[in-house]
Design goal:
Blueprint: H1 4-8, E1 11-13, E2 21-23
Antiparallel strand pairs: 1-2
Protein name: F213A protein
Length: 42
């Protein structure tokens, strides 16, 4: 199981022409968030 501390440190990036990088913890800093993590084989 992944801890909250581990999840909030994951670096995410946006899709599209304007790329932005941020820590996953920013998603739920002010509001709640539903997170789904999928591990791809390989």
């Amino acid at each position: 199981k992944a801890t909250l501390e581990f999840l909030e440190e994951i670096e995410l990036k946006t899709l599209g022409s304007e790329e932005r990088r941020f820590k996953a913890g920013e998603l739920w800093k002010k509001n709640g968030a539903v997170i789904m993590a999928v591990r791809r084989p390989g």
